[in-house]
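anyone seen this seq b4? input:
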Amino acid sequence: MIRVVDSNGKGRGGDGPSDISDIINRLKSAGGGGGGGPSSQPIIIGIVVLLLAWGAMTSFYTVQPEQRAVVKRFGDVIGISDPGLHFKLPFGIDQTQFVATERVLKQEFGFRSQEVREQGPTQYSEREFDNESAMLTGDLNIINVEWVVQYRINDPIKFLYELREPTRTLRDISESVMRRVVGNRLGSDVLTVGRVDIQSQGRDEIQQIMDRYDSGIYIITVELQDVVPPRAVQPAFNEVNEARQERERMINEAQKRVNQEIPRAEGAAIRTVAVAEGYATERVNRALGESVRFTAVLDEYREAPEVTRSRLYLETLNEVLPTIGQVLVVQDEQVGPLPLLDVNRNRAPRTGGDE
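predicted toks r here
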């Protein structure tokens, strides 16, 4: 139902094309200065074209692969769009906010990187941020700690609307947690062996606080960069670190020697025991064999003493004669050996010089 009010304040109601025609005629008359000429038609057509172009331009939006789009209608969040081409209501009815949810972001503490090059090292600012890096350790020493917090936005709605300044909140929480973690440790531990524990503990505690605030931020890692003492006492700290490193080196070498010598000694002991056990087994078996053999010979001797005695005598000669030198059988009247009794025949030649 369209109602048109004339110049006298009286309204006319209608629901047909005549009411729209009256409106167009009034616009024409207003644009033409009362003449109602055709010159007002291009202006109206231009306005309509601009409205259509504006509606077309504001009806579609593209979300990049590393982004998510939060869609709002009259200020109320109605959903999250994935990467790709999407439609929305035009003329500002639907509004979108893009959040890089797949990109790894970082916050730097104690230093600032100026430029990141594809080739070559990263350039860092020469400005010192002692208000961020200077920390007091548990043994009341001052050290400069530089670190990086890498994070990712896993909930765009919480990131945009739960906190007023989520990035600033992350920086404040990170600095507070790291100061407390470092303050509960000795300065020597922070400079040497405590770096990994500090990184792990700092990451867990920052994540717990950010989850408590419903920030929509996921902490990937906390990495310590340079952990150094103040410049005034840096030479003394370097000497202490060198002494500690030398101590660690000597301990490692001693442990290496222990790991080498103990297995070697254990192997030699096992080998000696095995050789002794083998020798004992051999002696026992030989003694058993000797006793069995002696018993068998004794039984044979009891059955036939003369034959057994002769056999033992001959076997003994067979064992003894090869070990002696040349054997000569002579008579009192004869000067040389008997030609018919050559006991050295068929004997294997001896390698030694015995005769």
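The CA atoms of residues 325 and 355 lie 4 Å apart. Residues 1-17 have pLDDT under 50 and may be disordered. kinda curious what u guys think
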